[in-house]
Amino acid sequence: MTHRLISTPRAACAILGACVALATGATGTALADGHGVVNAPPVDTKAQDAKAAKTPLQIAAERLPKVSAAKVLDIASKQIGVRENAQGGGTKFHSWYMSSPRAKETLARDGGRNVYDYANAPWCAMFVSWVGEMAGIRPTMGWDAYTVAHAKWFKNNGHWGTIPTPGAVVYFDWAGGKSIDGIDHVGFVKNDNGDGTITTIEGNTGNGDVEQRVRPISQVVGYGYPVYSN
Fold first, then answer.
1. φ, ψ for residue 106 (rounded to 5)?
2. Is residue 83 in a domain?
3. What range(s) does the Peptidase C51 domain occupy (predicted)?
4. Residues paired with residue 205 on neighbouring β-strands, in sequence order
5. 3 φ, ψ (degrees, to nearest 5)
């Protein structure tokens, strides 16, 4: 809500003894009869344009803790070695997702009957979502169990691109396709190695672990960009 500030000096008594407040407009003109038009202060259109240019994720980030890409990568790195059980599930990432409101929202879409259908589901996207939650920036990291839907969320919010920056969420198609609908896997970019490869931290990789990997950029569909403090 925009508030207009009007300077009001001491009330001056009119000839009939009633006191009429003098309102001073932005131009400095005193209006004693209560019917004058007070000019509003000039609007900072540049500030308005800058606010309008922000993405929904950037606006959401203003209400969140300031978190760097390095912090998110540290949280992800500390999970290296976490392994799924013999059924392909049982990690803390599964447990967290099943207990979240998001699981109920995605259940029908993913063809499940109840949230426990996620107990042994592929969990690379759950891992990325869990890291965002632990960092306190879930509204700008997103949360999902389906890699394609998660990538589309970044794209629909204007945070999708082709540059591998540290902390970016990276989406892979093992066949080398570039369509979001063909995405097979997701993780975090740790480094661009400058040789056509990136170093990543991923869940549900290798033998069902969280691992640090080196991947060819040729397998990357694109990158989602959470909002970081630097």
1. -95, -5
2. yes
3. 99-225
4. 209
5. -105, 135
Domain interval for residue 24: 1-50
Longest CA–CA span in the chain (Å) reads 93
Place of tokens 């978190």: 67
For the stretch 156-186, pLDDT in tens is 999 999 999 999 999 999 999 999 999 999 9
Number of domains forming the structure of the chain? 2
Residue with tokens 């606010």: 51
* Domain harbouring 129, CATH code: 3.90.1720
Beta carbons of 209 and 157 less than 8 angstroms apart: no
**What's the distance, CA 196 to chain centroid?**
28
Residue 46 confidence (pLDDT): 52
Shared domain check, 79 and 25: no
61 assigned to some structural domain: no
Question: In the structure encoding, which two tokens stand for residue 209, read together?
Answer: 């672990």
